[in-house]
Amino acid sequence: MKRELYTADHEAFREIARTFLAKEVLPHYEQWEKDGIVSRDVWRAAGRQGLLGLAVDEEYGGGGNRDYRYAAVLAEEFGRAYTPGFAIGLHNDMIGPYLTSLATEEQKRRWLPGFCSGEIVTAIAMTEPGAGSDLQGIRTTAEDHGDHWVLNGSKTFISNGINADLVIVVARTTPEGGAHGMSLLVVERGMEGFERGRNLDKIGQKSQDTAELFFDDVRVPKENLLGELNGAFLHLMTNLAQERITIAVAAVAGAEHLLEITTRYVKEREAFGRPLAKLQHVRFEIAEMATECAVTRTFVDRCIEEHANGSLDAVHASMAKWWATELQKRVADRCLQLHGGYGYMTEYPIAKAFVDGRIQTIYGGTTEIMKEIIGRSLLA
Fold this sequence. Notes:
The chain is an alpha+beta fold. Helix content is 51%, strand content 15%.
């Protein structure tokens, strides 16, 4: 079915993204996987190409374009390429909105130019060893010491954790405040007491520098409070819808690409003297996955349109996130099966996609949390 979502300008931007991937990402990706981290050079290259800070005002070095469809194009192309180590979506679509909507004028001038040029790599630190989806379980604290906060605690599973120059940390600033006693504090590279732990050894996304972060009496200036004091919970809930739809966009694009790869494979691979595509079971598998992808694509496209118009709510973003990521997981598993033994070999894209995509149903809110959000909205 012809997609009506994008204009000629969006498709022109898609070609820019594909060219960037072909030139600056794909040739180096295998080495980054071995290194366990992407090169800082690719961040600066993305900045030069205008791929960072798409929605940031031009006066700070950004693209000045708040049309979310451009971000969706980028998510689709990186999703198809299966290059999650370079977390451009995290930087642009998940952290960017905190800086553009909550930062003071002084903070914007201090941080946004580097954010857009790639000189400043960003991360957001919510998850702790004992607190994941349940943000109210956060134990990291920030005590008020007059002109600064004293930050203590630890975070884990932090994407961009090693490369990050600027980390938005969720900390408890009012111990008795519950969900409404937390604030967002910006910790910058080089602050005394801010240490990075291991670059975590994951089953997939090897080039994504996912790390532990430790804060031991870190003095954070009052000028680094982002948004309202004790307003973190509301700020987080406001921005999670964009995070979740972005994950959904990448997920369905990844599933579609795996289907394309597998369709070609079953046409070429022979068993019992004929192509796999001649077997009815294989045709049924392809037919089912193609239908599921098409139906999911239709819903996700509608969510993209709604978000571009400013009307996507948390419930529908949660629907898109859990459904598209679970689809990606199913498609990866079924496509690997159709590849047989070759699907288990790491040199085949399907094997890498199988392990890289598994996290999609976990980060950004687990499938179970997405269902809880949806269920509460219907049964409250």
